[in-house]
Amino acid sequence: MDLTIVSGLSGSGKTVTLQALEDIGYYCIDNLPANLLPHFASSLIDIPDNRAAVGIDVRNRHFLETLSDSLDSLKKLGIEFRILYLYANEKTLVRRFSETRRRHPLTDMSTSLIDGIRLEHQLLTSLAQGARIEIDTSNTTPHELRSQVRNLVGARDGAAMMLQIVSFGHKHGNPSDADFVFDVRCLPNPYWEKELREQTGIDQGVINFLKSTPETSAMIDHIFAFLTEWLPAYKAENRSYITIAIGCTGGRHRSVYVAEQLAKKLTDDGSTVQLRHRDLL
Asked: Where in the chain is the domain with CATH 3.40.50.300?
């Protein structure tokens, strides 16, 4: 199994890190008591393609004393793991807690924020020394941290992004979740061909009609070229989904055909695509 233990100083980005791992398919648990780590890992051994990440830090301070024994138990069980440790400088951590108004887990009526940060650093020293991966987030944005985490665990930026292509009819309203809307009402309309009126964009008659029109082929090529030019920028933003809407008048002929052809071209190009015809009854 692939087990990542996420730890580090409070305010350094542990939550963002666990969210990034969850987005690429890891089963994540935050604030797991260290003494439960061997039991948790053992329960996942026989699950195929199991990838898990657990957050362990000073919020369960009294369990940290058992962490060394728990890690030894993992080794005896033959479970490989990596420790990913996050930290930031004191000035940055103080600023982050001030901006969010969060309470540091080690502060109380007699312990100031800066003293709590320094105490936490001491308590986590042994964990930091055993870390396979260390990330200094002092000058890192949450977006940059997500990209770093995905790269460090072997996931290519944007690999999880799903393209959702939906055909629709403008007379029924635009899809509310569309990121891109392409209007194909300027293309020749099979509706005006009596024998094609009751067919749809997935029927051979309409396919032959639209395939024979150079305007339709040019439109598909231009949309595909636009998307292949700009989708990498959205992948770099770690987007999980992009919805591409193709609209004609009724949502049964031109938009359906164009959506079908575009989905095929994007799939052949290596994208993960879901196709839906909203108004195809």
From this structure: 2-152
